[in-house]
Specification:
2 copies of one chain form a homodimer.
Chain A (H helix, E strand, L loop, with lengths): L3 E4 L2 E2 L5 H13 L3 E9 L4 E8 L1 H18 L15 E10 L3 H19 L3 E5 L10 H5 L2 H8 L21 E5 L4 E7 L4 H11 L9 E8 L4 E8 L7 H13 L5 E7 L4 H11 L18
Parallel strand pairs in A: 5-7, 6-7
Antiparallel strand pairs in A: 1-4, 1-5, 2-4, 2-5, 3-4, 8-10, 8-11, 9-10
Protein name (chains A, B): glutamate formimidoyltransferase
Enzyme class (chains A, B): transferase
Keywords (chains A, B): Cytoplasm, Folate-binding, Histidine metabolism, Transferase
Chain lengths: 298, 298
Protein backbone atom coordinates (compact mmCIF):
# COMPACT_ATOMS: atom_id res chain seq x y z
CA UNK A 1 0.00 0.00 0.00
CA UNK A 2 1.24 3.44 -0.83
CA UNK A 3 2.11 6.06 1.78
CA UNK A 4 -1.11 7.77 2.69
CA UNK A 5 -1.40 11.14 4.40
CA UNK A 6 -4.52 13.13 5.20
CA UNK A 7 -4.69 16.93 5.22
CA UNK A 8 -7.54 18.84 6.91
CA UNK A 9 -7.02 22.57 6.36
CA UNK A 10 -9.47 25.09 7.85
CA UNK A 11 -10.27 28.32 5.99
CA UNK A 12 -11.82 31.52 7.31
CA UNK A 13 -14.69 31.60 4.86
CA UNK A 14 -17.95 29.74 5.41
CA UNK A 15 -20.52 31.94 3.67
CA UNK A 16 -19.45 32.85 0.15
CA UNK A 17 -19.95 29.72 -1.96
CA UNK A 18 -17.96 31.05 -4.89
CA UNK A 19 -14.91 31.47 -2.72
CA UNK A 20 -15.44 28.12 -0.97
CA UNK A 21 -15.81 26.27 -4.28
CA UNK A 22 -12.78 28.01 -5.79
CA UNK A 23 -10.64 26.89 -2.86
CA UNK A 24 -11.94 23.32 -2.83
CA UNK A 25 -11.44 23.12 -6.59
CA UNK A 26 -7.69 23.34 -5.97
CA UNK A 27 -7.80 19.84 -4.46
CA UNK A 28 -9.65 18.41 -7.43
CA UNK A 29 -7.06 19.87 -9.80
CA UNK A 30 -4.19 17.91 -8.25
CA UNK A 31 -3.85 14.40 -9.62
CA UNK A 32 -3.32 11.99 -6.74
CA UNK A 33 -5.07 14.14 -4.14
CA UNK A 34 -8.51 12.81 -3.32
CA UNK A 35 -11.15 15.11 -1.86
CA UNK A 36 -12.97 13.21 0.90
CA UNK A 37 -15.17 15.91 2.33
CA UNK A 38 -15.67 19.63 2.87
CA UNK A 39 -18.16 21.39 5.07
CA UNK A 40 -18.83 25.05 5.86
CA UNK A 41 -20.38 26.67 8.90
CA UNK A 42 -21.98 30.05 8.39
CA UNK A 43 -21.93 31.05 12.06
CA UNK A 44 -18.28 30.13 12.33
CA UNK A 45 -17.68 31.59 8.86
CA UNK A 46 -15.28 28.73 8.35
CA UNK A 47 -14.75 25.77 5.99
CA UNK A 48 -13.04 22.48 6.77
CA UNK A 49 -11.63 20.53 3.81
CA UNK A 50 -10.46 16.90 4.02
CA UNK A 51 -8.31 15.26 1.40
CA UNK A 52 -5.98 12.29 1.25
CA UNK A 53 -3.24 10.85 -0.93
CA UNK A 54 0.48 10.23 -1.12
CA UNK A 55 2.83 12.92 0.22
CA UNK A 56 3.76 14.75 -3.00
CA UNK A 57 0.26 15.51 -4.31
CA UNK A 58 -0.94 16.33 -0.77
CA UNK A 59 1.89 18.82 -0.39
CA UNK A 60 1.05 20.39 -3.72
CA UNK A 61 -2.69 20.57 -2.98
CA UNK A 62 -2.17 22.00 0.52
CA UNK A 63 -0.03 24.79 -0.86
CA UNK A 64 -2.37 25.54 -3.77
CA UNK A 65 -5.36 25.81 -1.42
CA UNK A 66 -3.51 28.22 0.83
CA UNK A 67 -2.47 30.26 -2.22
CA UNK A 68 -6.05 30.46 -3.45
CA UNK A 69 -7.30 31.39 0.04
CA UNK A 70 -4.68 34.16 0.21
CA UNK A 71 -6.02 35.53 -3.07
CA UNK A 72 -9.72 35.33 -2.26
CA UNK A 73 -10.09 35.85 1.50
CA UNK A 74 -9.56 39.23 3.12
CA UNK A 75 -9.09 38.92 6.87
CA UNK A 76 -9.43 42.66 7.47
CA UNK A 77 -13.20 42.26 7.14
CA UNK A 78 -13.60 38.72 8.52
CA UNK A 79 -16.07 38.00 11.28
CA UNK A 80 -17.09 34.65 12.68
CA UNK A 81 -17.72 32.70 15.85
CA UNK A 82 -14.72 30.37 15.65
CA UNK A 83 -11.26 31.41 16.84
CA UNK A 84 -8.98 32.12 13.84
CA UNK A 85 -5.72 33.80 13.03
CA UNK A 86 -5.58 33.63 9.22
CA UNK A 87 -7.34 33.10 5.90
CA UNK A 88 -5.82 29.65 5.86
CA UNK A 89 -6.16 29.22 9.57
CA UNK A 90 -4.67 25.82 10.25
CA UNK A 91 -3.15 23.04 8.09
CA UNK A 92 -2.69 19.71 9.85
CA UNK A 93 -1.06 16.68 8.20
CA UNK A 94 -2.18 13.33 9.56
CA UNK A 95 -0.43 9.99 8.99
CA UNK A 96 -2.88 7.36 7.75
CA UNK A 97 -0.87 4.38 6.54
CA UNK A 98 2.69 3.39 5.84
CA UNK A 99 3.89 6.83 6.80
CA UNK A 100 5.48 7.98 10.04
CA UNK A 101 4.65 11.03 12.10
CA UNK A 102 8.20 12.23 11.38
CA UNK A 103 7.41 12.22 7.66
CA UNK A 104 4.26 14.24 8.30
CA UNK A 105 6.25 16.73 10.37
CA UNK A 106 8.63 17.02 7.43
CA UNK A 107 5.67 17.63 5.10
CA UNK A 108 4.34 20.33 7.42
CA UNK A 109 7.76 21.99 7.52
CA UNK A 110 8.08 22.01 3.73
CA UNK A 111 4.58 23.35 3.10
CA UNK A 112 4.97 25.91 5.89
CA UNK A 113 8.28 27.16 4.52
CA UNK A 114 6.86 27.51 1.01
CA UNK A 115 3.79 29.34 2.33
CA UNK A 116 5.99 31.67 4.35
CA UNK A 117 8.35 32.43 1.49
CA UNK A 118 6.03 32.49 -1.51
CA UNK A 119 2.77 33.72 0.04
CA UNK A 120 4.40 36.06 2.57
CA UNK A 121 2.41 34.57 5.48
CA UNK A 122 3.82 34.20 9.02
CA UNK A 123 3.88 30.48 9.78
CA UNK A 124 3.70 28.76 13.17
CA UNK A 125 4.34 25.05 13.49
CA UNK A 126 2.14 23.28 16.04
CA UNK A 127 1.43 19.89 17.60
CA UNK A 128 4.02 17.29 16.49
CA UNK A 129 5.63 19.85 14.17
CA UNK A 130 6.06 22.48 16.92
CA UNK A 131 9.53 23.99 17.25
CA UNK A 132 9.02 24.83 20.95
CA UNK A 133 6.87 23.22 23.67
CA UNK A 134 4.59 26.28 24.01
CA UNK A 135 3.64 26.06 20.34
CA UNK A 136 2.41 22.47 20.61
CA UNK A 137 -1.15 23.38 21.57
CA UNK A 138 -3.06 25.06 18.73
CA UNK A 139 -5.19 27.08 21.17
CA UNK A 140 -2.01 28.64 22.64
CA UNK A 141 -0.64 29.46 19.20
CA UNK A 142 -3.91 31.05 18.09
CA UNK A 143 -4.48 32.96 21.34
CA UNK A 144 -5.21 36.64 20.63
CA UNK A 145 -6.51 35.63 17.21
CA UNK A 146 -6.08 37.59 13.98
CA UNK A 147 -6.68 40.93 15.66
CA UNK A 148 -4.18 40.27 18.42
CA UNK A 149 -1.44 38.96 16.16
CA UNK A 150 -0.32 42.41 15.00
CA UNK A 151 1.11 42.80 18.52
CA UNK A 152 1.76 39.16 19.42
CA UNK A 153 4.11 38.69 16.45
CA UNK A 154 6.45 41.36 17.86
CA UNK A 155 6.96 39.31 21.04
CA UNK A 156 10.34 37.55 20.86
CA UNK A 157 8.65 34.36 22.03
CA UNK A 158 6.18 34.45 19.14
CA UNK A 159 8.43 35.06 16.17
CA UNK A 160 7.09 33.06 13.23
CA UNK A 161 8.89 29.84 12.25
CA UNK A 162 8.88 30.94 8.61
CA UNK A 163 7.75 33.86 6.51
CA UNK A 164 7.72 37.59 7.29
CA UNK A 165 8.44 38.77 10.80
CA UNK A 166 5.40 41.01 10.73
CA UNK A 167 1.69 40.39 10.31
CA UNK A 168 0.14 39.92 6.86
CA UNK A 169 -2.98 42.09 7.16
CA UNK A 170 -4.90 40.47 4.31
CA UNK A 171 -4.06 36.80 4.97
CA UNK A 172 -3.25 36.79 8.68
CA UNK A 173 -0.99 34.04 10.04
CA UNK A 174 -1.25 30.26 9.63
CA UNK A 175 -0.61 27.32 11.93
CA UNK A 176 0.83 24.31 10.10
CA UNK A 177 1.29 21.04 11.89
CA UNK A 178 1.17 17.27 12.10
CA UNK A 179 -1.05 15.24 14.40
CA UNK A 180 -2.55 11.79 14.82
CA UNK A 181 -6.06 11.22 13.49
CA UNK A 182 -8.95 11.83 15.82
CA UNK A 183 -11.63 9.16 16.21
CA UNK A 184 -15.21 10.02 17.11
CA UNK A 185 -16.56 7.06 19.08
CA UNK A 186 -19.81 6.77 21.03
CA UNK A 187 -21.00 4.08 23.41
CA UNK A 188 -24.76 3.64 23.81
CA UNK A 189 -26.27 2.88 27.21
CA UNK A 190 -29.46 1.05 28.07
CA UNK A 191 -30.91 3.97 29.99
CA UNK A 192 -32.45 7.36 29.27
CA UNK A 193 -30.78 9.00 32.27
CA UNK A 194 -28.40 11.61 30.85
CA UNK A 195 -26.86 12.08 34.29
CA UNK A 196 -25.49 8.53 34.16
CA UNK A 197 -23.92 9.16 30.74
CA UNK A 198 -22.37 12.37 32.04
CA UNK A 199 -20.99 10.67 35.14
CA UNK A 200 -19.45 7.88 33.08
CA UNK A 201 -17.99 10.38 30.60
CA UNK A 202 -16.36 12.23 33.46
CA UNK A 203 -14.66 9.07 34.70
CA UNK A 204 -13.46 8.00 31.27
CA UNK A 205 -12.08 11.29 30.01
CA UNK A 206 -8.65 12.73 30.68
CA UNK A 207 -10.05 15.78 32.48
CA UNK A 208 -11.71 13.59 35.09
CA UNK A 209 -8.63 11.46 35.73
CA UNK A 210 -9.50 8.92 33.05
CA UNK A 211 -7.82 8.00 29.80
CA UNK A 212 -5.11 10.36 28.65
CA UNK A 213 -6.26 10.73 25.04
CA UNK A 214 -10.03 10.61 25.57
CA UNK A 215 -12.47 13.50 25.67
CA UNK A 216 -16.09 12.75 26.43
CA UNK A 217 -19.55 13.91 27.42
CA UNK A 218 -23.05 12.54 27.83
CA UNK A 219 -25.46 12.96 24.90
CA UNK A 220 -29.18 12.19 24.68
CA UNK A 221 -30.45 10.23 21.65
CA UNK A 222 -34.00 11.57 21.69
CA UNK A 223 -35.36 9.28 18.98
CA UNK A 224 -34.24 6.09 20.66
CA UNK A 225 -34.85 7.41 24.18
CA UNK A 226 -31.39 6.36 25.29
CA UNK A 227 -28.20 8.19 26.19
CA UNK A 228 -24.63 7.72 25.04
CA UNK A 229 -21.12 8.52 26.14
CA UNK A 230 -19.82 10.53 23.19
CA UNK A 231 -16.03 10.51 22.94
CA UNK A 232 -13.17 11.89 20.92
CA UNK A 233 -10.11 9.68 20.97
CA UNK A 234 -7.30 12.01 20.02
CA UNK A 235 -4.56 9.38 19.88
CA UNK A 236 -5.94 5.94 19.10
CA UNK A 237 -2.53 4.32 19.20
CA UNK A 238 -2.19 5.22 22.86
CA UNK A 239 -5.82 5.32 23.97
CA UNK A 240 -7.39 2.55 21.88
CA UNK A 241 -11.05 2.19 20.92
CA UNK A 242 -11.34 -1.03 22.92
CA UNK A 243 -9.85 0.66 25.98
CA UNK A 244 -12.48 3.40 25.85
CA UNK A 245 -15.23 0.82 25.26
CA UNK A 246 -14.16 -1.40 28.15
CA UNK A 247 -13.79 1.57 30.46
CA UNK A 248 -17.32 2.78 29.72
CA UNK A 249 -18.57 -0.77 30.37
CA UNK A 250 -16.68 -0.89 33.64
CA UNK A 251 -18.11 2.43 34.85
CA UNK A 252 -21.62 1.53 33.66
CA UNK A 253 -21.59 -1.44 36.03
CA UNK A 254 -21.68 0.98 38.93
CA UNK A 255 -25.18 1.98 37.81
CA UNK A 256 -26.32 -1.47 36.73
CA UNK A 257 -26.69 -0.01 33.25
CA UNK A 258 -25.95 -2.20 30.22
CA UNK A 259 -23.85 -1.11 27.24
CA UNK A 260 -26.13 -1.80 24.29
CA UNK A 261 -23.95 -0.79 21.39
CA UNK A 262 -21.39 1.62 20.03
CA UNK A 263 -20.81 3.79 16.99
CA UNK A 264 -17.81 4.85 14.99
CA UNK A 265 -18.53 8.23 13.42
CA UNK A 266 -16.96 9.12 10.08
CA UNK A 267 -13.65 7.79 8.89
CA UNK A 268 -11.24 5.72 10.96
CA UNK A 269 -7.83 4.28 10.18
CA UNK A 270 -7.94 0.53 9.56
CA UNK A 271 -5.39 -0.08 12.31
CA UNK A 272 -7.67 1.39 14.99
CA UNK A 273 -10.17 -1.45 14.46
CA UNK A 274 -7.64 -4.18 13.71
CA UNK A 275 -6.10 -3.36 17.11
CA UNK A 276 -9.47 -4.17 18.69
CA UNK A 277 -9.72 -7.50 16.89
CA UNK A 278 -6.19 -8.32 18.07
CA UNK A 279 -7.10 -7.47 21.64
CA UNK A 280 -10.32 -9.45 21.87
CA UNK A 281 -9.02 -12.45 19.94
CA UNK A 282 -5.77 -12.37 21.95
CA UNK A 283 -3.87 -12.61 18.67
CA UNK A 284 -0.15 -13.19 19.10
CA UNK A 285 2.49 -11.65 16.81
CA UNK A 286 0.17 -10.10 14.28
CA UNK A 287 1.62 -7.77 11.69
CA UNK A 288 -0.38 -5.28 9.63
CA UNK A 289 1.47 -6.74 6.63
CA UNK A 290 -0.77 -9.79 7.01
CA UNK A 291 -3.69 -7.68 5.82
CA UNK A 292 -4.19 -8.63 2.20
CA UNK A 293 -5.26 -5.14 1.22
CA UNK A 294 -1.92 -3.79 2.39
CA UNK A 295 -0.39 -5.69 -0.50
CA UNK A 296 -2.33 -3.70 -3.03
CA UNK A 297 -0.47 -3.06 -6.26
CA UNK A 298 1.37 0.26 -6.07
CA UNK B 1 -9.92 1.33 -3.17
CA UNK B 2 -9.55 -0.50 -6.46
CA UNK B 3 -11.11 -3.89 -7.16
CA UNK B 4 -8.71 -6.48 -5.83
CA UNK B 5 -8.65 -10.14 -6.81
CA UNK B 6 -6.21 -12.84 -5.78
CA UNK B 7 -5.17 -15.76 -7.97
CA UNK B 8 -3.48 -18.88 -6.57
CA UNK B 9 -2.66 -21.24 -9.46
CA UNK B 10 -1.00 -24.60 -8.76
CA UNK B 11 1.46 -26.07 -11.27
CA UNK B 12 2.68 -29.64 -11.60
CA UNK B 13 6.38 -28.84 -11.29
CA UNK B 14 8.14 -28.50 -7.94
CA UNK B 15 11.67 -29.66 -8.70
CA UNK B 16 13.13 -27.95 -11.77
CA UNK B 17 13.98 -24.42 -10.68
CA UNK B 18 14.46 -23.17 -14.22
CA UNK B 19 10.91 -24.13 -15.12
CA UNK B 20 9.49 -22.79 -11.83
CA UNK B 21 11.25 -19.46 -12.24
CA UNK B 22 10.20 -19.17 -15.88
CA UNK B 23 6.55 -19.64 -14.90
CA UNK B 24 6.67 -17.25 -11.93
CA UNK B 25 8.42 -14.67 -14.11
CA UNK B 26 5.21 -14.37 -16.12
CA UNK B 27 3.55 -12.69 -13.10
CA UNK B 28 6.38 -10.19 -12.71
CA UNK B 29 6.08 -9.27 -16.39
CA UNK B 30 2.48 -8.09 -16.06
CA UNK B 31 2.14 -4.51 -14.85
CA UNK B 32 -0.51 -4.35 -12.15
CA UNK B 33 -0.15 -7.97 -11.06
CA UNK B 34 1.75 -8.25 -7.80
CA UNK B 35 3.50 -11.48 -6.88
CA UNK B 36 2.87 -12.15 -3.19
CA UNK B 37 4.40 -15.57 -2.78
CA UNK B 38 5.40 -18.81 -4.45
CA UNK B 39 6.49 -22.07 -2.92
CA UNK B 40 7.42 -25.45 -4.33
CA UNK B 41 7.27 -28.88 -2.80
CA UNK B 42 9.65 -31.48 -4.18
CA UNK B 43 7.72 -34.48 -2.86
CA UNK B 44 4.50 -33.15 -4.29
CA UNK B 45 6.39 -31.98 -7.39
CA UNK B 46 4.13 -28.96 -7.32
CA UNK B 47 4.36 -25.17 -7.08
CA UNK B 48 1.77 -22.78 -5.66
CA UNK B 49 1.92 -19.17 -6.88
CA UNK B 50 0.02 -16.30 -5.22
CA UNK B 51 -0.54 -12.95 -6.89
CA UNK B 52 -2.97 -10.10 -6.53
CA UNK B 53 -4.20 -7.05 -8.41
CA UNK B 54 -7.15 -5.64 -10.31
CA UNK B 55 -9.10 -7.97 -12.61
CA UNK B 56 -7.52 -7.14 -15.99
CA UNK B 57 -3.86 -7.69 -15.10
CA UNK B 58 -4.77 -10.76 -13.02
CA UNK B 59 -6.58 -12.26 -15.99
CA UNK B 60 -3.62 -11.57 -18.22
CA UNK B 61 -1.11 -12.99 -15.75
CA UNK B 62 -3.19 -16.10 -15.06
CA UNK B 63 -3.38 -16.91 -18.77
CA UNK B 64 0.31 -16.20 -19.39
CA UNK B 65 1.32 -18.51 -16.54
CA UNK B 66 -0.82 -21.30 -17.92
CA UNK B 67 0.63 -20.74 -21.38
CA UNK B 68 4.19 -20.92 -20.08
CA UNK B 69 3.35 -24.05 -18.05
CA UNK B 70 1.88 -25.67 -21.17
CA UNK B 71 5.15 -25.00 -22.98
CA UNK B 72 7.53 -26.17 -20.26
CA UNK B 73 5.76 -28.96 -18.35
CA UNK B 74 5.22 -32.39 -19.86
CA UNK B 75 2.60 -34.35 -17.96
CA UNK B 76 3.44 -37.63 -19.71
CA UNK B 77 6.48 -37.96 -17.44
CA UNK B 78 5.13 -36.23 -14.32
CA UNK B 79 5.29 -37.96 -10.95
CA UNK B 80 4.44 -36.51 -7.54
CA UNK B 81 2.63 -37.13 -4.28
CA UNK B 82 -0.15 -34.58 -4.73
CA UNK B 83 -3.29 -35.32 -6.77
CA UNK B 84 -3.12 -33.50 -10.13
CA UNK B 85 -4.80 -33.54 -13.52
CA UNK B 86 -2.77 -31.01 -15.51
CA UNK B 87 0.40 -28.98 -15.95
CA UNK B 88 -1.60 -26.00 -14.74
CA UNK B 89 -3.59 -28.05 -12.32
CA UNK B 90 -5.95 -25.56 -10.74
CA UNK B 91 -6.54 -21.80 -11.10
CA UNK B 92 -8.75 -20.26 -8.38
CA UNK B 93 -9.79 -16.59 -8.37
CA UNK B 94 -10.52 -15.14 -4.94
CA UNK B 95 -12.36 -11.87 -4.22
CA UNK B 96 -10.36 -9.66 -1.84
CA UNK B 97 -11.95 -6.22 -1.84
CA UNK B 98 -14.55 -4.23 -3.70
CA UNK B 99 -15.22 -7.16 -5.99
CA UNK B 100 -18.03 -9.67 -5.90
CA UNK B 101 -17.88 -13.44 -6.18
CA UNK B 102 -19.92 -13.09 -9.38
CA UNK B 103 -17.17 -10.97 -10.90
CA UNK B 104 -14.59 -13.60 -9.94
CA UNK B 105 -16.72 -16.31 -11.51
CA UNK B 106 -16.79 -14.18 -14.67
CA UNK B 107 -13.00 -13.87 -14.53
CA UNK B 108 -12.66 -17.65 -14.17
CA UNK B 109 -14.97 -18.17 -17.12
CA UNK B 110 -13.03 -15.80 -19.37
CA UNK B 111 -9.62 -17.20 -18.46
CA UNK B 112 -10.94 -20.76 -18.77
CA UNK B 113 -12.40 -20.12 -22.20
CA UNK B 114 -9.18 -18.52 -23.45
CA UNK B 115 -7.11 -21.43 -22.08
CA UNK B 116 -9.42 -23.92 -23.69
CA UNK B 117 -9.42 -22.23 -27.08
CA UNK B 118 -5.86 -20.95 -27.36
CA UNK B 119 -3.92 -23.56 -25.37
CA UNK B 120 -6.10 -26.51 -26.38
CA UNK B 121 -6.59 -27.63 -22.78
CA UNK B 122 -9.83 -29.23 -21.49
CA UNK B 123 -11.22 -26.86 -18.85
CA UNK B 124 -13.47 -27.70 -15.86
CA UNK B 125 -15.04 -24.94 -13.80
CA UNK B 126 -15.22 -25.68 -10.06
CA UNK B 127 -16.42 -24.21 -6.75
CA UNK B 128 -18.41 -21.00 -7.28
CA UNK B 129 -17.68 -21.14 -11.02
CA UNK B 130 -18.98 -24.71 -11.39
CA UNK B 131 -21.53 -25.31 -14.18
CA UNK B 132 -23.06 -28.33 -12.40
CA UNK B 133 -23.32 -29.27 -8.71
CA UNK B 134 -21.03 -32.28 -9.06
CA UNK B 135 -18.21 -30.08 -10.35
CA UNK B 136 -18.26 -27.83 -7.29
CA UNK B 137 -15.84 -29.89 -5.25
CA UNK B 138 -12.31 -29.84 -6.67
CA UNK B 139 -11.57 -33.34 -5.37
CA UNK B 140 -14.52 -34.70 -7.37
CA UNK B 141 -13.39 -32.92 -10.53
CA UNK B 142 -9.82 -34.15 -10.16
CA UNK B 143 -10.78 -37.72 -9.26
CA UNK B 144 -8.93 -40.22 -11.49
CA UNK B 145 -6.17 -37.66 -11.94
CA UNK B 146 -4.16 -37.07 -15.10
CA UNK B 147 -3.86 -40.78 -15.90
CA UNK B 148 -7.59 -41.39 -15.48
CA UNK B 149 -8.73 -38.39 -17.49
CA UNK B 150 -8.08 -40.03 -20.85
CA UNK B 151 -11.13 -42.19 -20.07
CA UNK B 152 -13.05 -39.83 -17.76
CA UNK B 153 -13.26 -37.12 -20.40
CA UNK B 154 -15.24 -39.48 -22.65
CA UNK B 155 -17.97 -39.77 -20.00
CA UNK B 156 -20.96 -37.58 -21.00
CA UNK B 157 -21.08 -36.27 -17.45
CA UNK B 158 -17.47 -35.11 -17.59
CA UNK B 159 -17.35 -33.24 -20.87
CA UNK B 160 -15.07 -30.21 -20.46
CA UNK B 161 -16.70 -26.78 -20.07
CA UNK B 162 -14.32 -25.38 -22.68
CA UNK B 163 -11.52 -26.54 -24.93
CA UNK B 164 -11.03 -29.84 -26.74
CA UNK B 165 -13.34 -32.74 -26.00
CA UNK B 166 -10.38 -35.04 -25.63
CA UNK B 167 -7.42 -35.14 -23.31
CA UNK B 168 -4.34 -33.02 -23.96
CA UNK B 169 -1.55 -35.54 -23.29
CA UNK B 170 1.21 -32.99 -22.72
CA UNK B 171 -0.72 -30.45 -20.61
CA UNK B 172 -3.50 -32.54 -19.11
CA UNK B 173 -6.71 -30.81 -18.02
CA UNK B 174 -7.19 -27.75 -15.80
CA UNK B 175 -9.74 -26.80 -13.13
CA UNK B 176 -10.52 -23.09 -13.12
CA UNK B 177 -12.71 -21.61 -10.42
CA UNK B 178 -13.65 -18.92 -7.94
CA UNK B 179 -13.76 -19.31 -4.18
CA UNK B 180 -13.68 -17.28 -0.99
CA UNK B 181 -10.34 -16.81 0.73
CA UNK B 182 -9.33 -19.36 3.29
CA UNK B 183 -8.11 -18.21 6.70
CA UNK B 184 -5.67 -20.24 8.75
CA UNK B 185 -6.46 -19.50 12.38
CA UNK B 186 -5.14 -21.22 15.50
CA UNK B 187 -6.22 -20.91 19.11
CA UNK B 188 -3.63 -21.70 21.79
CA UNK B 189 -4.62 -23.53 24.96
CA UNK B 190 -3.04 -23.39 28.40
CA UNK B 191 -2.38 -27.12 28.49
CA UNK B 192 0.04 -29.60 26.95
CA UNK B 193 -2.63 -32.29 26.59
CA UNK B 194 -3.06 -32.88 22.85
CA UNK B 195 -6.14 -34.96 23.51
CA UNK B 196 -7.97 -31.88 24.79
CA UNK B 197 -7.05 -29.90 21.66
CA UNK B 198 -8.27 -32.78 19.51
CA UNK B 199 -11.55 -33.04 21.40
CA UNK B 200 -12.19 -29.32 21.08
CA UNK B 201 -11.30 -29.37 17.37
CA UNK B 202 -13.82 -32.16 16.85
CA UNK B 203 -16.58 -30.11 18.44
CA UNK B 204 -15.76 -26.92 16.54
CA UNK B 205 -15.34 -28.34 13.06
CA UNK B 206 -18.06 -29.06 10.54
CA UNK B 207 -17.31 -32.78 10.47
CA UNK B 208 -18.06 -33.09 14.18
CA UNK B 209 -21.32 -31.16 14.02
CA UNK B 210 -19.69 -27.79 14.63
CA UNK B 211 -19.32 -24.74 12.44
CA UNK B 212 -20.20 -25.20 8.81
CA UNK B 213 -17.10 -23.54 7.33
CA UNK B 214 -14.51 -24.65 9.89
CA UNK B 215 -11.99 -27.47 9.61
CA UNK B 216 -9.79 -28.20 12.59
CA UNK B 217 -7.40 -30.46 14.44
CA UNK B 218 -5.24 -30.47 17.54
CA UNK B 219 -1.55 -29.59 17.11
CA UNK B 220 1.30 -29.73 19.63
CA UNK B 221 3.60 -26.69 19.92
CA UNK B 222 6.65 -28.55 21.23
CA UNK B 223 8.75 -25.49 21.96
CA UNK B 224 6.16 -23.82 24.15
CA UNK B 225 4.88 -27.09 25.59
CA UNK B 226 1.29 -26.17 24.80
CA UNK B 227 -1.31 -27.37 22.30
CA UNK B 228 -3.50 -25.50 19.88
CA UNK B 229 -6.70 -25.97 17.93
CA UNK B 230 -5.51 -25.39 14.39
CA UNK B 231 -8.33 -24.36 12.05
CA UNK B 232 -9.03 -23.52 8.46
CA UNK B 233 -11.96 -21.15 8.04
CA UNK B 234 -13.05 -21.70 4.47
CA UNK B 235 -15.71 -18.98 4.41
CA UNK B 236 -14.98 -16.21 6.88
CA UNK B 237 -18.07 -14.25 5.92
CA UNK B 238 -20.27 -17.09 7.14
CA UNK B 239 -18.08 -18.68 9.79
CA UNK B 240 -16.28 -15.67 11.27
CA UNK B 241 -12.96 -15.66 13.11
CA UNK B 242 -14.63 -14.49 16.32
CA UNK B 243 -17.19 -17.29 16.07
CA UNK B 244 -14.44 -19.91 15.86
CA UNK B 245 -12.55 -18.23 18.72
CA UNK B 246 -15.58 -18.06 20.99
CA UNK B 247 -16.53 -21.63 20.22
CA UNK B 248 -13.07 -22.92 21.13
CA UNK B 249 -13.29 -20.92 24.38
CA UNK B 250 -16.69 -22.38 25.11
CA UNK B 251 -15.54 -25.95 24.58
CA UNK B 252 -12.31 -25.35 26.53
CA UNK B 253 -14.39 -24.56 29.61
CA UNK B 254 -15.46 -28.17 29.75
CA UNK B 255 -11.85 -29.06 30.56
CA UNK B 256 -11.12 -26.05 32.75
CA UNK B 257 -8.46 -25.11 30.21
CA UNK B 258 -7.78 -21.43 29.48
CA UNK B 259 -7.44 -19.97 26.00
CA UNK B 260 -4.10 -18.18 26.16
CA UNK B 261 -3.89 -16.66 22.71
CA UNK B 262 -4.53 -17.09 19.03
CA UNK B 263 -2.69 -16.75 15.74
CA UNK B 264 -3.61 -15.65 12.27
CA UNK B 265 -1.35 -17.42 9.78
CA UNK B 266 -0.40 -15.69 6.54
CA UNK B 267 -2.59 -13.18 4.79
CA UNK B 268 -6.16 -12.30 5.75
CA UNK B 269 -8.69 -9.94 4.20
CA UNK B 270 -9.13 -6.74 6.22
CA UNK B 271 -12.85 -7.38 6.58
CA UNK B 272 -12.31 -10.65 8.46
CA UNK B 273 -10.70 -8.76 11.36
CA UNK B 274 -12.86 -5.63 11.14
CA UNK B 275 -15.86 -7.98 11.57
CA UNK B 276 -14.35 -9.12 14.87
CA UNK B 277 -13.87 -5.54 16.08
CA UNK B 278 -17.49 -4.82 15.15
CA UNK B 279 -18.70 -7.84 17.09
CA UNK B 280 -16.78 -7.23 20.30
CA UNK B 281 -17.35 -3.48 20.32
CA UNK B 282 -21.03 -4.00 19.46
CA UNK B 283 -20.65 -1.39 16.72
CA UNK B 284 -23.94 -0.36 15.13
CA UNK B 285 -24.29 0.49 11.44
CA UNK B 286 -20.65 0.31 10.48
CA UNK B 287 -19.72 0.46 6.83
CA UNK B 288 -16.39 -0.62 5.37
CA UNK B 289 -16.39 2.74 3.59
CA UNK B 290 -15.59 4.29 6.96
CA UNK B 291 -12.14 2.74 6.74
CA UNK B 292 -9.86 5.57 5.69
CA UNK B 293 -7.63 3.28 3.66
CA UNK B 294 -10.61 2.33 1.50
CA UNK B 295 -10.56 5.90 0.23
CA UNK B 296 -7.12 5.44 -1.22
CA UNK B 297 -6.50 7.40 -4.39
CA UNK B 298 -7.30 5.26 -7.39
Amino acid sequence: MAKLVECVPNFSEGRDNNIIEAIVEEVRKVKGAKLLDYSSDEDHNRTVVTFIGSPEPIKEAAFNLAKKAAELIDMTTHQGGHPRMGATDVVPFIPISDITMAECVQLAREVGQKMGEELNIPIYFYEEAATKPDRKNLADVRKGQYEGFFEKIKDDNWKPDFGPQEMNAKSGATAVGARVPLIAYNVNLGTHDIEIANQIAKKVRFLGGGLRYAKGMGVKLEERNIVQVSMNLVNYEKTAIYTAFEMVKMEAKRYGVPVIGSEVIGLVPMKSLIDCAEYYLQIENFSMDQILEKRIVE
